[in-house]
Write a structure and sequence with these properties.
Layout (H helix, E strand, L loop, with lengths): L9 E2 L4 E3 L6 H7 L19 H16 L11 E6 L2 E12 L4 E8 L9 H16 L4 E7 L3 H10 L2 E12 L2 E11 H7 L10
Parallel strand pairs: 5-6
Antiparallel strand pairs: 1-2, 2-3, 3-4, 4-5, 6-8, 7-8
Helix pairs in contact: 3-4
Length: 202
């Protein structure tokens, strides 16, 4: 583990990645509303969340928000995205294969009022730097589908390479979409990150 890994909150020019707070729950309940447009691009083929699923998600966030900071892991597995004092989304990672140290990332801007401003790209840049700084991972990647053009654009902007395209993998909503995996090596990000905000925490 690197000796000087940053601790959230991670501050960027226009937003920060921070730990969850109990006060986030009312806002989060609004962001998780199944009527929100983000559900139409964030794995929509899994179906619109039910009321029960939404409540379970809120319980999970409630438990996370109540965990003392000293009890949270490094690196964090999920952080809130806050812009101008407003909770707007989340960044995540999970094990694709813990046995081989293979991490997969995710990001969602859940408030559509903040779309189209480059905030997703900034948040992903901060998250990428944080995960590389907090681990000795050789690579990071994310999986999406060809219909999520915004996520693919974020990856391309930050230098992620399209490493897999499973053609016609998802038949959904009257159309057919490819499954896409985009990856980034540590040395590639070390060259690229100079043009993006550095993940520095407190």
């Amino acid at each position: 583990m690197p000796a000087a890994s940053p601790t959230p909150p991670i501050q960027g020019p226009r937003l920060q990645l921070r730990d969850w707070r109990p006060a986030d729950l009312p806002r989060l309940a609004d962001l998780l509303d199944p009527a929100r447009p983000w559900h139409a691009t964030n794995g929509p083929y899994f179906g619109t969340p039910t009321t029960a699923q939404t409540q379970e998600e809120l319980r999970r966030f409630s438990a996370l928000a109540a965990t003392p900071r000293t009890g949270l892991p490094t690196p964090r597995t999920m952080l809130a995205i806050e812009a101008g004092g407003v909770l707007i989304g989340a960044v995540t990672w999970y094990w694709e294969s813990q046995e081989t140290d293979w991490r997969r990332m995710g990001i969602v801007i859940q408030d559509e009022e903040y779309w189209g401003r480059g905030l997703g790209t900034e948040a992903m840049a901060l998250w990428t730097s944080y995960l590389f700084d907090s681990t000795d991972a050789l690579r990071l990647d994310f999986a999406t589908y060809s219909g999520n053009t915004g996520m693919i654009a974020i990856g391309l902007t930050l230098g992620f390479v399209e490493e897999a395209r499973l053609r016609q993998a998802r038949r959904w909503a009257g159309g057919v979409h490819d499954s896409v995996v985009m990856g980034l090596l540590r040395e590639e990000w070390e060259q690229r990150r100079r043009t993006w905000p550095t993940a520095t925490g407190t």
